[in-house]
Amino acid sequence: MADPPLRRRGRHPRDRGADPAAHPAGIRPDLRGGYAQLVGQLCRSGDRQLAIEAWRAFPRWVRWLPGAAGALIARLRDLDDRTVWPAVADALVAVVTAGHGETLLAEALGALTALDEAPAGGLDRPARRRVEAIVTRLAGRGSLTVPVRATLGTAAEVLSAVDGFAPQAARLLAAAIDPADAADVAQLRDLVAERPVLAARIARELPRRLGEHEPELLRPVAAELARQPRVADGLLALAYAEQGARLHWPEPWRAIVVRLRAHPAPEVRDAALELSLDR
Which domain holds residue 258? Predict the structure, then answer.
């Protein structure tokens, strides 16, 4: 198949650069670097629709784009942009989950948190909204590789150090940890320890992660959480305890629920009573 043309004869911006729909597999290896540079140019296009298309193509070409991280972060930091940035956020998520951005996520989120209170044409904290959007996209991804989860964990650490971003840090950390590893879970427990409302939110999101593991691998952590008196620990324990239903409530899982029904926190007790142990 012939290489997609690098069109130069028309006046439309697309005609002076690369076709954003092209795939590296369709470009000769010796031309991919040059083609990637043209995609990078389209990402900076003043034509918003063309820029959006180019950012959608960006993850396919990032390995041939020196300085790609800087370009992506710069575009995310442009708070005057109200239309292209969601495509940039999608590109960031795609690059990270493909394993090409070990430090990119932390750098991007760090850059945005630094702009949290920056004025931006009357918008309400647009940098924060971008952080939230990126975190939501990542928190919803399942079956992440160990290196990608490590990347998320590093970014969660960056967010946790910035006042006001504990919720986003917790969501990333919940996606990053191994929920069957007590040491990993301890990091999440520490982050939400004095934040029961946040713990409840994380507990609602945990079942998706827990469902990726065999219940019996989770039971030691579930039992440990259930023994703790803090409200946050009890709420997390409830999310774990629900996994017993997958096994039709064998005795060890029933014992965890019974313990939670005697928890010091009434909201934990009430929620545990709502769990039916009927097989």
Answer: 212-279
